[in-house]
Amino acid sequence: MIRNLNILLIFTSVLMLSGVYALKFSIENTASERTALIAEIDSQEGQLSLLKADEAVLSQPGHIEPIVRRHELALAIAPVKQEQFGAFADLPMRPAKPNSSAMDSLFESLEAGIDPIDAILELEGIE
Question: Whole-structure pTM over 0.70, yes or no?
């Protein structure tokens, strides 16, 4: 009986030891993947900052103006004129004040337990 118990304990110990080593190698693999991902993120952040710097240089007016002058006739573009913009007089006036008596009657009917939306739906035959 004790012999069988010892064999079982040794087998269990070996099994647990192999499980611990498998877990250790799995963790080491995960750590190396994490390190590789961090290095890749750092590299991509460096490339992104370089692209942002290139965009800043290429979008400067001093860089764009000669290109625009060179292709001005082909693109049929011209400087913006003041007449192209609207005036304040063209803006619509503010709407009139809302009908407060209608709102008051709506709230009174809601307090009385009458739902005006249901009444409209019943008249339309939707409900």
Answer: no
